[in-house]
UPF0391 membrane protein C483_15701
Amino acid sequence: MLELALLFFVIAIIAGALGAGGVAGLTMSIAKWLVLLFLVLAVVSLLL
């Protein structure tokens, strides 16, 4: 899941550099939610 978040982050950086602001914003928000989901699942798995 973390690899997928990093992939979306890289896509957002490339899209932002090429001037596609809408695509960059969308992929950055997807990457942010994937990282948050990863952190929540990591904490839950450590506690259980």
Observations:
- DSSP finds two helices and no strands in the chain.
- The chain has one domain: 2-47.
- The mean pLDDT is 87.
